[in-house]
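Structural biology now treats backbone shape like a language. To illustrate, our science desk offers a sequence and the tokens encoding its fold:
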Amino acid sequence: MGVQPALAVSWMNPDDRSWVFELREGVRFHDGEPLTAADVVFSLQRCQTHPRSSLRATLANVLKVVFGFDPSLPPPRTDRAAAQKLLASTSFREGFDVDFDVRQMMVPLAAPIVRDLSSVGIRARLNALSENEFFRKARAGESAMLLLRYSCRSGDAQELLDGTFRSQDATRGFGSVNYSYDRCPVPGLDATIDAARRTTDPFFRGRLLREALARNREEALFIPVFNYVTRFFGSPGVVWKNRADSFRLVAEASFRPLALQAPGRLPRNE
């Protein structure tokens, strides 16, 4: 997956701290007003400062308006014997009980996790909560164990690292969805994440992002347990391609000419 332009036709960075965008001509808002550079500046500044902005941390170091998935990282492997051995080396050798907080919509996904945990002696009590109560407990640090799902809408690993792995910093928007710790317990990880955000060299930046993700894999700060797949079904008369960021934009759909429609077949997008 690569960055595809929508409002800009080209961009360049004359130095490590500046970006210059050439906007596409003829772009208009829904009310007919033309898109201007001032509109883009306003939107970026709002993303930078609005408390509910998902891009706030990404834009934290942008002073003026002007990617690192590592496929070599192996997925976690289930090893019940090793888990039981580790548990037996602690004061919880007989197992333990724990409340497992989940959103009501995630109960079908959490039930198999409860069964797997019980096989090694961890007795998790499934606690299905409303959206508001789940996130209230998470933000207050009141959940002993919880299940989250995460999608990287920007297509850049920096979003995941800034929001989930980095130490919390409310003024800059870091750690906004980190409900596990205030300060990162892995020495140097914050510095690696910050260095990746500051550099514009794509090769050096990619190396730093992969390094940060590998450190998380080694330290098990967060444990991935499943890959959430969303399936979309559409009418044969509609042309639409699923986006990697999970957004579904009406403007990207179009009607297929009747002569090209194949009756009885529905396209599936994953």
